[in-house]
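As promised in the previous annual report, we have extended the structural survey to additional targets. Below is the entry for Ribosomal processing cysteine protease Prp.
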Amino acid sequence: MTKVSIYTKDNVTFGFESKDHATGIDEYEEIVCNGVSALTQTLYFSLLEVCGLDENKIYDYQEDGYLKVMIEDDAYLREDVKTLFSSMELGLRLISKQFPINLEVIKLEVQND
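The corresponding structure token record, generated without further manual editing, is:
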């Protein structure tokens, strides 16, 4: 099962972690994995290309079946960034609704320091 954790501060998304892609539960796993990858990678590159965020202000780590993206400054409060995160979350939740045994999406509130 693919799991996506969406991280928020004061109910505003600032990052996500996607893991356990392509574990082969059933024939739909590849479809789900590809959909999750398309949404999460499009978000990352849109933060850079569309929103113009500095890549040095975005923590990203990727390996096989794993992607983590976190905005490291207050740019996550910008309306364009909020819209991108909301769109990604909507897409992920729609996939999860159709394929609930293949994708789990959870939202985690992080306490401010």
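Residues 7 and 30 are 25 Å apart (CA to CA). The chain has one domain: 1-107. These points will be discussed at the next consortium meeting with the crystallography subgroup.
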